[in-house]
Amino acid sequence: MPQPYGLLAEVTHRCPLHCVYCSNPLALLDRQDELGTEDWLRVIREAAGLGVVQVHLSGGEPLVRGDLETLVAECRRLGLYTNLITSGLGLTKSRAEALVAAGLNSAQLSIQGDAAESTDLVAASKRFDKKEAAARIIRDAGLPLNMNVVLHRLNLDRLDAIIDVCVAWGAERLELANSQYYGWALRNRDLLMPGKAQLDDAVAVYERRKQELGERMELLWILPDYYEPYPKPCMGGWAQNALTVAPDGTVYPCPVAAEITTMAFSSVRDHDLAWIWTKSEAFQAFRGTDWMPDPCQSCPRKEIDFGGCRCQAFALTGDAARTDPVCMHSPDHHLVQDALVRANQDKAEAAELVYRRHTVTTRGH
Ligand code: SF4
Ligand code: FES
């Protein structure tokens, strides 16, 4: 039985942004659905008991919860590394200091682009200034500043400028995450999918800047899988090394799996994490290679990419057990090719970006 080392604690779906590629489920949970502090503390203890060593506090925007310090302190008591994944909106100097005092180890700040216009275009927010302030607050609090930007057709041409911003703000690491197309991003795929020439230009920028920056800032390139011949080894394989606990306590093998509506996932309200990890039907469904259909079952790459992404297979075909359509051997590969044909036409056909909407209530818990 594999052992998880990472827990993604999605403490809330509440968020001040409206990103057009949001990776949270299409049906967002409300504040009244969220686990309370005691339940989260139990989840953290159970995760540590299972072997987890890293806890990523995420959302939505995790800062909307007032009990983050309590959760971080429990992680520290148990010797777990904690990372805050934040939009930066709502981060104050005193909050950062309180989190550091509780034991927070690092923070990952997301940006949407290099300027206020790009934040407004992609996230319907004008608060780029808040992000710059948050970067300063994170650094002043003594935390390593990791940054993240989702890349797509609307900002790939600005890659040089985006990297400049992160250098200027003092980031130690920048994750250049090409958008993945499930959940909300699938709705906006025609407008977000880059063309091949645009992507090639961006790869050249990435390689040049990686060389130039050396150890000053680490650049990490997350592949746009539609342009690859083989799928990504998503999550290192289903239920292999990480788990996600959603705001309401439902436990998933990956952050997107709530979209697989044909599967039933268990909750920490009904079972402990160890049972869910080892015994629940959902976690066992695609673990290992026995479940694989052909062409994966007879493919020499089956231990390399594990048949690709289950969420992407479901999003594109309605069947999570099919070969990821990104794979050139998949019988459904035409679904990916068709999307690329549209992306490489002069103009994408979709009319307008569809923004994520969610009401943010005040801090609680
Ligand atoms: Fe991977 Fe399956 Fe494609 Fe082989 S056939 S490369 S295992 S997705
Ligand atoms: Fe869920 Fe790939 S995102 S398995």
TrEMBL record:
This protein's pathway: Cofactor biosynthesis; pyrroloquinoline quinone biosynthesis
Recorded GO MF terms: 4 iron, 4 sulfur cluster binding; cyclase activity; iron ion binding; oxidoreductase activity; S-adenosyl-L-methionine binding
Catalytic activity entry: [PQQ precursor protein] + S-adenosyl-L-methionine = E-Y cross-linked-[PQQ precursor protein] + 5'-deoxyadenosine + L-methionine + H(+)
Sorted UniProt keywords: 4Fe-4S, Iron, Iron-sulfur, Metal-binding, Oxidoreductase, PQQ biosynthesis, S-adenosyl-L-methionine
Entry EC number(s): 1.21.98.4
Cofactor(s), by name: [4Fe-4S] cluster
Pfam families named among the record's database cross-references: Radical_SAM, SPASM
Coiled-coil positions: none
UniProt KW Translocase keyword: no
Residues in Radical SAM core domain copies: 1-216
GO terms, biological process: pyrroloquinoline quinone biosynthetic process
UniProt cofactor note: Binds 1 [4Fe-4S] cluster. The cluster is coordinated with 3 cysteines and an exchangeable S-adenosyl-L-methionine.
Binding-site residues for [4Fe-4S] cluster, renumbered to this chain: C15, C19, C22
Record's function text: Catalyzes the cross-linking of a glutamate residue and a tyrosine residue in the PqqA protein as part of the biosynthesis of pyrroloquinoline quinone (PQQ).
Assembly: Interacts with PqqD. The interaction is necessary for activity of PqqE.
Family: Belongs to the radical SAM superfamily. PqqE family.
Name this protein carries in UniProt: PqqA peptide cyclase
Species in which this protein is naturally found: Amycolatopsis saalfeldensis
